[in-house]
Amino acid sequence: MISALQWISRGKALPHPKKYVLDDSEMDRVSNMANVQFEDAKAQLERAQRDIARGKDPFAPSTGDDDDDDDIDEHDRKDEDEDDAEMKDEELASTTTQENQKDTKQDPDDLSRYNLDEYDDEPGTDFNAGAFTNIRGLAVYQSNQDDPYITVNADAENDDEAEERQELEVYPTDNFIIAAKTEDDVSQLEAHIYAANDSNLYVHHDLMLPSFPLCLEWLDYSPARSIPASAADQNTTDAIAARTGANFIAVGTMDPEIEIWSMDVVDGMYPDAILGRKSETDQLNAALGTGKKKRKQSKPRVANADYHVDAVLGLSWNPIARNLLASASADGTVKLWDLSRPHTSESSSAFRSFNAHTDKVQSVAWQAKAIGGSGATTANPAVLLSGSYDKTIRVFDTRTPDTASVISIGSDVESVVWNGWNSGANTFLSSLESGLVQSFDIRNPTQSLWTLQAHDTACTSVDISPHIPGCILTASSDRSVKLWNLSEIESQAEVEKPSAINLVVSRDLGIGKIFASKFSPNDPLTLAAAGSGGQLQVFNALSNAGVRKTFGDRLRKLQGELKVDIDGTEQSRGDGVVRIEDDDDDSDDGDIVEADDMQD
Questions:
Q1: Residue 26, C-beta contacts closer than 8 angstroms, at least 6 positions apart
Q2: What are φ and ψ of residue 475, in 5° steps?
Q3: What is the pLDDT of residue 597?
Q4: Cα 373 from Cα 471, distance rounded (Å)
Q5: Are 587 and 465 found together in one domain?
Q6: Same domain, 217 and 350
Q7: Is 459 helix (H, G, I), strand (E, B) or coil?
Q8: Is 189 inside any structural domain?
Q9: What phi and psi values does residue 140 have, to the nearest 5 degrees?
Q10: Using CB atoms within 10 A as the burial measure, which of 78, 398, 530, 582 is most buried?
Q11: 105 in any annotated domain
């Protein structure tokens, strides 16, 4: 299944991603960040390998402190005895040969000493080539080019490197779509390339995750390294400038820690940063009790101000205060993390922590992340929005959190998003477990602007088109994605609300229950969706005639790179679905449902 996805705009990724290099400096960084003792781990691995070689169970409990030393000494003595036995056998064979030759000389008529039966045979070359025979004579070269016995064409190696470089190249017209996928208890980040010009979708590379992923957030701010490259302060002007224009994904999982990965590095083995204290939270999973009768209950998870103690359910990066990342957790807290500070397993602490809710916090969003129009530029970068399973939504200034606006709703919150198309980005949308979508204005939060029964089951995600005003996207566990039109926005007493909400298109993409769906940041009315089927699909809604008709006037106003041709025929556009091709892909293209007005 795919539990979360995230678009990355064109031009944000490096044209030629880097290969992960595990050198000494990287080992030091990982050891310092995660409190990993590589020398101890290496020694344990060597002992386990020796135990396996001797037929001993490496996981068997030790019988004493000197067991290993005794085993090693005994093993060495055994090797010496075997060497002595081999030498004695060779001496005995040599003595026997000499005696036979002596006996032969005593009989002048015996021709056996000439070995006439083997006269035509080639000289024998058989010898006992043990694994370590003549090991002292082994020549070692720094590279294959220096070894005279290796005649591999260097040009062929260069051709392979050039071919691999070309396969990994990211073109300026490519989008990354990052999917958090879990299959057979193995979780990973799959980085897909979507090329809109030829409707191509494929997996570019993937990264392994330690736990089930729940949420993703893109940021172009490089987190401070756990080991500075120099003694200079990492917050100098030059250091901050070096961290901008990056390409990172923050991942929230069932573990309390937040991992930040570079999407410009392939074959990565370890994240660039970990927010949280794994050295403390690892103990929370330990079973209570001692001996064989350990209870299945785990230790209580008591929230604190420094780090999360339960799963991270939501993330939001602040594009104005670029070093701030907000996180929402099942421990009921919302935390702010300063990415300009180095974080290690023992000293990683949140910049601020808010006990905003009494139950799990499902979603969080900065007002500066408002989608559409100029709302993000006029938004307050300190205002934060959070939605929880306690059936409340809170809007508060992180500088004065005690003066929060609390909105009570009738169901658990699935997701929240700010609407930048309204003046000042003062309105937001929330999707609920009941299938409702509601809009609120923070200037008058006592009642909703409008309520829409978007789905019959949980509305897992809601998104706002960054290109088309009045166009919203909803997705649900009922397996459908829907586009809605908020028509004729009216202003009444400084509160903006639509005169009607129309369903434009509903589609079952054939990918199971949908857990995540988002608009493309570059292509108008193109969206990505994924869910329980474990497949990522891209849907170009312009393939639908009803979509082109409804949003035609607004589409024609788009200029530059956003300009699209809406006069093409539906047949030439196909069904609009782009998927990863599979030889056994016989899945249904899905059903299209068009509807007229939906009541407000």
A1: 270
A2: -140, 155
A3: 43
A4: 12
A5: yes
A6: yes
A7: strand
A8: yes
A9: -120, 130
A10: 530
A11: no
Q: What residue has token string 């997996």?
A: 203
- Assess whether 346 and 469 both reside in one domain: no
3-state secondary structure of 192: strand
How many domains does one find in the chain? 2
375 three-state secondary structure: helix
Query: What SS3 class is residue 474?
Result: strand
Which residues of the chain register pLDDT less than 50? 65-70, 72, 127, 228-234, 237-238, 241, 492-493, 570-571, 583, 585-590, 593-600
Best CA proximity match to 495, nearest among 437, 422, 599: 422
Residue 350 sits in the same domain as residue 478: no
Domain boundary among 331, 355, 379: 355
pLDDT in tens, 177-201: 999 999 999 999 999 999 998 899 9
What pLDDT score does 83 carry?
A: 58
What's the Rg (C-alpha) of the chain? 33
- What residue type is assigned to position 564 of the chain? V
| Residue 234, pLDDT score | 47
Residue 325 lies in a domain: yes
Residues 6+ apart with CB under 8 A from 347: 277
Q: Can you read off the two tokens belonging to residue 285?
A: 């999973």
- The count of other CB atoms within 10 Å of the CB of residue 92 is 10
The 3-class SS string of 256-313 reads: CCEEEEECCEECCCCCCEEECCHHHHHHHHCEECCCCCCEEEECCCCCCCCCCCCCEE
Assess contact for 339 and 224: CB atoms under 8 A. Answer: yes
Q: How far apart are CA 167 and CA 161, in angstroms?
A: 10
Q: Are the beta carbons of 513 and 558 closer than 8 angstroms?
A: no
DSSP state of 397: E
- CA distance linking residue 109 with residue 99, whole number of Å: 18
Last residue of a domain, one of 355, 375, 408: 355
The parent domain of residue 168 ranges over: 1-49+152-355
Give residue-wise pLDDT tens across range 342-394.
Answer: 877 677 889 999 998 999 999 999 999 999 877 667 789 999 999 999 999 99
Q: Do 364 and 334 touch, CB atoms closer than 8 A?
A: yes
Whether 194 is in a domain gets the answer: yes
Say if residue 204 is in the same domain as residue 336.
yes
d(CA 545, CA 504): 10
Residues 24 and 157 in one domain: yes
- What pLDDT score was predicted for residue 343? 78
Residue 475's Cβ-count burial label (10 Å; 0-12, 13-18, 19+) is buried
